[in-house]
Write a structure and sequence with these properties.
The protein is an alpha+beta fold. The protein is built from 4 helices and 2 strands, in the order H-E-E-H-H-H. The protein has a domain of 107 residues: Alpha-Beta Plaits, CATH 3.30.70. A hairpin with a 4-residue loop joins strand 1 and strand 2. Helix 1 packs antiparallel against helix 2. The chain starts with a helix and ends in a 30-residue tail after the last helix.
């Protein structure tokens, strides 16, 4: 994946957030072709501070405007309505999530929504192996799907 004007616009909006919301600190962030991941650290709430829903709304609004300026498509929807939030409760979880964000671009080749994903990637992703040549067609322990894929739909 290479950076482009749209990615740069989204990154700029992310980095601008503390100018609008001084109670936040930015942490890990990545722009993917079809989504973003980021960690915001919120200061303890006090009167007059905006919460996460307002900050997420503003990020989506600011970045959609910049994206639509670049694409010359004013007013077009860019983001889905909602967002996913997760409260990070300890340093170990923070480290795991930072690692996930940092390595997310490397997993893009396996993403089902990646239009450039090849059939070979599908075969590797689900743990398929070449047909056995010894005449034994029974499943072996290594023939199972990749661990962690239990909730993915198979077609």
């Amino acid at each position: 994946m290479r950076a482009n004007a749209l990615e740069s616009a989204v990154q700029a909006c992310w980095h601008d957030l503390p100018e609008h919301y001084p109670q936040i600190m930015l942490d890990a962030f990545v722009v993917m072709p079809n989504h973003v991941h980021g960690i915001l650290i919120l200061a303890p709430e006090s009167a007059g501070q905006h919460g996460l829903p307002e900050i997420a709304r503003a990020f989506k609004t600011f970045s959609a405007r910049r994206i639509n300026e670049i694409r010359r498509t004013p007013g077009q929807p860019v983001w889905q309505r909602g967002y996913h939030e997760h409260i990070i409760r300890d340093e170990a979880s923070l480290a795991d999530i930072r690692e996930y964000i940092a390595t997310n671009p490397a997993r893009w080749a396996f993403d089902r929504e990646n239009p450039d994903r090849s059939a070979d990637v599908d075969a590797v992703r689900v743990g398929l192996k070449p047909a056995r040549t010894d005449g034994d067609h029974r499943a072996t322990p290594g023939d199972a799907d990749v661990p962690g894929d239990e909730d993915e739909q198979r077609s």
